[in-house]
Amino acid sequence: MRRNCCYNKVTIFIALCFSNMTIQAAAFAALSRSKSVEKLCSISTSLRSSSFAALDTLIDAGSAVTSTAVDTLCTAVKDTVKSLASTLQVIECNSVLLVETETTTPPFQASFLNNQVKVIGHRGSIYEEPENSVEGFLASAMIGCDAVELDVFLLKCGTLVVFHGDGTDESPGWLNDYCGIEGNILDYTADEVRKLRLNPDCKEFAAPKEKILSSYIPTLREVLKAVKDTPMTVKIELKGPGTALPTLMMVEELQMVNQVHFSSFCHENIKIIRDLRPERNQNGSHRYKTGCLFVEPPENFLDIALEVGASEVHLKYDTCTKERIDAIHAANMGSMAWFRGPPGMLEDTNSKYLDVGNEDEAMYQTVMRTGVEGLCVNRPNVLLSLLGRLASGVSEPSPLAPGFLLE
């Protein structure tokens, strides 16, 4: 009698949990897509199997189901329900962003159906070749990228090098994980940098390790000369301090003004370029193209970009909404969405955006729905393949692209 009473108590508790889960899951089913539903089902199945398996073990063994055992089981069930609630909270929070991106125009009536979305290789083709390497940039050209993005630092000897490094936008260029040594690249000369070797175990590196081991840190001059005869645009991020003027001078020396764009999170760098080179083309566009980079755009991000004379605004992919893109274009500026490095993208897709893979076609389709003109991606081959199929009509876009901007 005692055992049946306790069993019924736990059964009722679990039934209530499942009722609550079913209601919540159904409420979000219209918003969530395959991966979210799969995760909910996985948690639900785990809860069912672990809870009843524990009960069956106790009963089959003929053990008396004590109040302590019941309490322990209830605690385990509560913990699992909390896990579900956390998942639902992520979905609910992400659905808020949808309000900013909703549009009455048919999905995929954007320019990329005409293959006009620009494909920019973020630091090159980093899953095939080392990031910020000559080989990586040439690989991007060979697969048909419209542009590549790279990072520039000014060494203490006056040489410009192409390198990303550890650190923040306010304090960049650290060698710790990138080269496995302490120090900052700003404190090195060109000869010293040439002797540095990249750390194949660096979490940022996605290329094969054997290629990382044989790679080196190139100078900006090497890179620009290597890509000059390709049709690609080169988007140079002025990463380190003091890079604006010497980079501008080198671009002019190599006669690549029409092929190079300048960008920076430090918007003062953009102002320096614009103050020095305010020239415009006959159509009114800036001859020297510049882009303001933003991680989390403030409300007045457009005013900031206009004040420094930017030609473009570059938004982090998950802050790229239709509302913001429309405002950028209305201000006669270009737009680009940039993606984080591999660890950041993996973190986002594992913990924040449950409906898309790590830069898969679903993610790219979701961002493209905003009408953004260019995507700076880590997997340009995936994006190029998608655009090629869409343009040829071989693969129709999904009527509802899943993604972190839930629709």
Automatic annotation (TrEMBL):
Keyword Nucleotide-binding: no
Domain GP-PDE: 117-387
Highest taxon, organism lineage: Eukaryota
Keyword terms of this UniProt record: Signal
GO molecular function, one term: phosphoric diester hydrolase activity
The keyword Nucleotide-binding is annotated on this UniProt entry: no
Family matches, as InterPro entries: GP_PDE_dom, PLC-like_Pdiesterase_TIM-brl
Signal sequence range: 1-27
PROSITE patterns the record matches: GP_PDE, PIPLC_X_DOMAIN
GO BP: lipid metabolic process
PANTHER family cross-referenced by the UniProt entry: GLYCEROPHOSPHODIESTER PHOSPHODIESTERASE, CYTOPLASMIC, GLYCEROPHOSPHORYL DIESTER PHOSPHODIESTERASE
Name of the featured protein: GP-PDE domain-containing protein
